[in-house]
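Shipment paperwork, digital attachment
Item: protein structure file
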Amino acid sequence: MRFTRWTGALAVATVTLAACQKAESPEQAASRMQAEADSAGPAIAAQNARWMRYANANQVDSVVELYTTDAVLLPPNTPAATDRAGIRASLAATMVPGGVITLTTASLAVNGPLAIERGTWTYAIPAQGKTPAMNVAGKFLVHWRKVDGQWLFAEDIWNNDAPMAPPPPAPRRSR
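Attachment content:
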């Protein structure tokens, strides 16, 4: 019985103390989140460097390990990949041997174990057979999640800056 009273008293004290805490002001939240971004930034930059190094070496399995087990990949013009096997297949289809991809972070917002990164990418693709060399560029948005102390890609979306190809001409009607 005594244990139950102490447990109840401890629960009431905890709830009371929590209720007395002042809510974080918008300025305090912004300051805290900036400090968290400053702290997480080097680790996320290191993960991006690994991603580029693995992708440029065509090491798809190593790239996939940088994603959470329940990650979602949202590549352009194809369906979403919703697990590591799908991510592996999607990335394998887009990586070109000898291609060089570069990621550049424009902004990073961090709130506890979650982060959002926005940036740009370039991809230099070497000539392959009858296909000439190409340089493409675009932008990306990544939702990061800190899992067991490591920042991992949770959601990854990118698109190309090139304009869409025009639609084919309408068929001519015969008279």
